[in-house]
Design brief:
The structure holds two protein chains of two kinds. Chain A is α+β, with helices and mostly antiparallel strands. Chain A has helices spanning about 10-15, 35-45, 65-70, 120-125, 150-155, 205-215, 225-235, 270-275; strands at about 5, 15-20, 25-30, 45-50, 55-60, 85-90, 95-105, 110-115, 135, 140-150, 170-180, 180-185, 195-200, 220-225, 280-290, 300, 305-315, 320-330, 340-345, 345-355. Chain B is α+β, with helices and mostly antiparallel strands. Chain B contains four helices and nine strands. Chain B has a six-stranded antiparallel sheet with strand order 1-2-3-9-8-5. In chain B, a hairpin with a 4-residue loop joins strand 1 (about 10) and strand 2 (about 15-20). The radius of gyration of chain B is 14 Å and the shape is globular. The chains are: A alpha+beta, B alpha+beta. The interface of A and B includes residues 314 and 322 of A.
C-alpha cells in the first residue's frame, strides 16, 4: 500500500499527475509539464513536496563516534547548524544509501535519507547502534518542502526576518519560524540551484505550501513534481541512489570520493575500498552527438566492445540536447572519448564530457 | 485549420485524415497531454511499408518512450520532417502535426469517429 505525504490533497488540488515513488504517491508533474517546471527552477523558482524523505535522529554521548564509523565522511569539527553529505557503505564497499547529516547540537544529529531506502537504512543503523547512541526514526513526524531557484531567497525574505535565513550553503537554522509555526530552514537542495529545504511538523505542511505559493506569486513560483526533480538533479549531475550507486557500487566508483575520508582510522567499507584501488570503473558524463535520447541502463560500446552502462539519461531542458551519466571501464573515461550507446536497438554516438553538465553562476 | 471532429481515431490514440487516396497520421490531443512534453520523434523513411496496428515510429518525452501505431497498411509517401527538429509542435498543435502520409492503402484498423473517441477517452480516464 502506497503512503500519501501530508500534501497529497494539495497535489490533487494543484493538478498534479500522481505516480508511485519510493512507496509514496507523489506528483510526477503538474499541468505546466516537466520542461516548464525545470525552467522555472533554473530561472525563477519552484516548490517541491519532498516529505517522502526519511528523517532519522542519532543522539547520545557516542553519536559522533558512531557517525564516523557508520558513514564514510568525517563529522569531526562540525559546528551546530552545519550539514554534511555522506554515503553510508556496507562491508563490501557498496552503498547502503547517501544522506545528509545535520548537527543540531552536541550529541544530537538529524539525518535525512532517501525515501525508498528509509526502512533499510533505519534497520542498518539500528543494527550498528552501540552503548551511548540512540537511533530513532522520526520520518512520520516531518513534512518537507524544497523551495529551489534563484528567487528562493527573495521569496523567503517575505516570510521571515533575514537573520533567520541561513547564509551559507549546507547550513541550517533549527529555530526557524514561519507564521508562528516552528520549522527547520536549510540551505540545501537537489537541483543545482540556490534554495532551501524546509522541515515542519507533518500536519503543518499544507499550510506552509500555501503560504510559500502565496509569497512567491510575484516571482512566478510554480509547483514542481518528481519529473523535474529528476531532470534538474541529472542536469546538475548529482548522483541518485539506485542509479549511479547501489548496494554493489562504491561511492568512489560513483565519483563521490570527496565524501569518503580514507584517512579516518576506521569506518564500515574502508578495507574493501582500499582493496579495490585503483578503481576499475568510474562515473562519467556522456553527451549525445547524433540524434536520439539517451536513457538509463543502456550498454555503452567502443567500436563494438562493451565498456559500461548508462545509469541515468534523458533530454536536458535547460542545456538542450541529451545527456547521460554512465559507469565505464576506467580506461574509457577520458573527456573527448567517442563512444556509442545502444538505446532500444539503436546506436547513438556520444562523447565523454566533464561533470557537472550544468553549474550555476556563483554570485 | 483541421477540425478534430472530422478525423477518425484508433484505440491507441492516433488520428487519421484522408486526403484523396492518402492518409495523414498523427496523435490526438488526449495523447499528447498524457505523454507530456515531447522532446524527440523517430519516424520511418519514405518508401517504408507500414502495417495497420503495428508500430511505425515512436515519440519520446523527458520521462518515457511511446510507440506510434499505424492505423493503416500501406507505403509511407512522406514524413513530416519539421517534427524531427521541433517535436514540441505535437504538443502545441496535435491536429496539425502529422507524422506520416501513407499511400497505396491496403487495409485499416477499426476506428472511431470523434464523438465515440471522446467517450472512449473519458472511459480511459475513469479507469486510471
Amino acid at each position: 500500500m502506497e503512503k500519501k505525504t501530508p500534501l497529497y490533497d494539495t497535489h490533487v488540488k494543484y493538478g498534479g499527475s500522481i505516480v508511485e515513488f519510493g512507496g509514496f504517491l507523489l506528483p510526477v508533474q503538474y499541468e505546466t509539464g516537466i520542461k516548464k517546471e525545470h525552467m522555472a527552477v533554473r530561472t525563477q523558482c519552484g516548490l517541491f513536496d519532498v516529505s517522502h524523505m526519511g528523517e532519522i535522529l542519532v543522539q547520545g554521548p557516542k553519536a559522533l563516534d558512531y557517525l564516523n564509523y557508520v558513514l564514510t565522511n568525517d563529522f569531526n569539527g562540525m559546528k551546530d547548524g552545519r550539514a554534511r553529505y555522506s554515503p553510508m557503505c556496507n562491508e563490501n564497499g557498496g552503498t547502503v544509501d547517501d544522506l545528509i547529516v545535520y548537527k543540531r547540537g552536541d550529541n544530537d544529529y538529524f539525518v535525512v535519507v532517501n525515501a525508498a531506502n528509509k526502512d533499510k537504512d533505519y534497520a542498518w543503523m539500528k543494527d550498528k547502534e552501540a552503548e551511548g547512541v540512540e537511533v530513532t526514526d522520526v520520518s512520520d513526524q516531518y513534512g518537507q518542502l524544497a523551495l529551489q531557484g534563484p528567487k528562493a531567497q527573495e521569496i523567503l525574505e517575505k516570510l521571515v526576518p533575514a537573520d533567520m535565513i541561513p547564509a551559507g550553503y549546507y547550513t541550517a537554522n533549527f529555530e526557524g519560524e514561519i507564521n508562528g509555526i516552528p520549522c527547520i530552514i536549510s540551505r540545501t537542495g537537489y537541483t543545482g540551484e540556490d534554495g532551501f529545504e524546509i522541515y515542519m511538523a507533518a500536519d503543518k505542511a499544507p499550510e506552509f505550501w500555501e503560504t510559500l505559493m502565496e509569497a512567491g506569486k510575484e516571482e512566478d513560483l510554480i509547483p514542481c513534481g518528481l519529473g523535474a526533480r529528476d531532470t534538474l538533479r541529472l542536469e546538475a549531475s548529482m548522483p541518485l541512489y539506485g542509479h549511479e550507486m547501489n548496494d554493489e557500487i562504491s561511492p568512489k566508483t560513483a565519483g563521490l570520493g570527496f565524501a569518503v575520508k580514507m584517512d579516518k582510522p576506521e569506518f564500515i567499507g574502508k578495507e574493501a575500498m582500499e582493496a579495490a584501488m585503483p578503481l576499475k570503473e568510474k562515473r562519467v558524463g556522456l553527451k549525445a552527438v547524433s540524434r536520439g535520447i539517451l536513457r538509463e541502463h543502456c550498454e555503452v560500446f567502443n567500436d563494438g566492445k562493451l565498456v559500461g552502462h548508462t545509469t541515468s539519461g534523458t533530454f536536458m531542458p535547460y542545456l538542450g540536447g541529451s545527456y547521460a551519466m554512465a559507469i565505464l571501464d576506467a580506461d574509457q573515461t577520458e573527456v573527448g572519448n567517442k563512444l556509442q550507446v545502444v538505446v532500444r536497438g539503436r546506436s547513438i554516438d556520444v562523447e565523454v564530457v566533464p561533470l557537472p553538465f550544468y553549474k550555476r553562476d556563483q554570485k | 485549420m483541421i477540425d478534430p471532429k472530422e478525423l477518425k481515431y484508433t484505440k491507441t490514440h492516433e488520428w487519421v485524415r484522408y486526403e484523396g487516396d492518402a492518409a495523414f497520421v498523427g496523435i490526438s490531443d488526449y495523447a499528447q497531454h498524457a505523454l507530456g512534453d515531447l522532446v524527440f520523434v523517430n519516424l520511418p523513411e519514405p518508401g517504408d511499408e507500414v502495417e495497420a496496428g503495428e508500430p511505425f515510429g515512436d515519440v519520446e518525452s523527458v520521462k518515457a518512450v511511446s510507440d506510434l501505431f499505424s492505423p493503416v497498411s500501406g507505403e509511407v509517401l512522406e514524413i513530416n520532417e519539421e517534427l524531427l527538429d521541433a517535436p514540441q509542435l505535437i504538443n502545441e498543435q496535435p491536429y496539425e502535426a502529422w507524422f506520416i502520409k501513407v499511400g497505396g492503402i491496403t487495409g485499416e484498423e477499426e476506428m472511431m469517429d470523434a464523438e465515440r473517441y471522446d467517450a472512449f477517452c473519458e472511459e480511459e480516464e475513469g479507469n486510471e
